[in-house]
From TrEMBL:
<feature type="region of interest" description="Disordered">
    <location>
        <begin position="75"/>
        <end position="113"/>
    </location>
</feature>
<protein>
    <submittedName>
        <fullName>Uncharacterized protein</fullName>
    </submittedName>
</protein>
<feature type="region of interest" description="Disordered">
    <location>
        <begin position="30"/>
        <end position="63"/>
    </location>
</feature>
Length: 113
């Protein structure tokens, strides 16, 4: 029984520490608002994803596409152990957070009307 309690406490402490760990640098999925897709306050930042291709005229790419934002590359300043960054919820939060740097963005192809 004691081993079970110790295991539970150890696992809980690990999950607690993990929850407050700084996010990883890299590319994050961006989901724009269907009603106002160019508004950074309404562009939700999702999960860490592989880097989008440099060029792709059919999907999310880092260069040449003129459509809606689909991914953002973030870097987090972890230099102060007492002031660790959190993953921003929106692109606007990323733009205004001194602990977050936006290194790049990727866009969808422009929609044809």
């Amino acid at each position: 029984m004691l081993a079970l309690v110790a295991t539970f406490i150890g696992f809980s402490a690990f999950k607690f520490a993990e929850r407050f760990a700084a996010p990883d640098d890299g590319w994050y999925e961006v989901t724009p608002s269907p009603t106002d897709p160019e508004n950074p306050a309404l562009q939700s930042i999702g999960n860490l994803i592989p880097a989008p291709p440099a060029e792709d005229s059919t999907s999310c790419a880092q260069f040449d596409n003129e459509g809606h934002n689909c991914a953002i590359e973030l870097s987090f300043d972890r230099s102060d152990p007492n002031n660790q960054p959190e993953k921003p919820a929106t692109v606007q939060e990323a733009e205004s957070d001194m602990l977050v740097s936006i290194l790049g963005e990727a866009r969808q192809p422009e929609e044809e009307n």
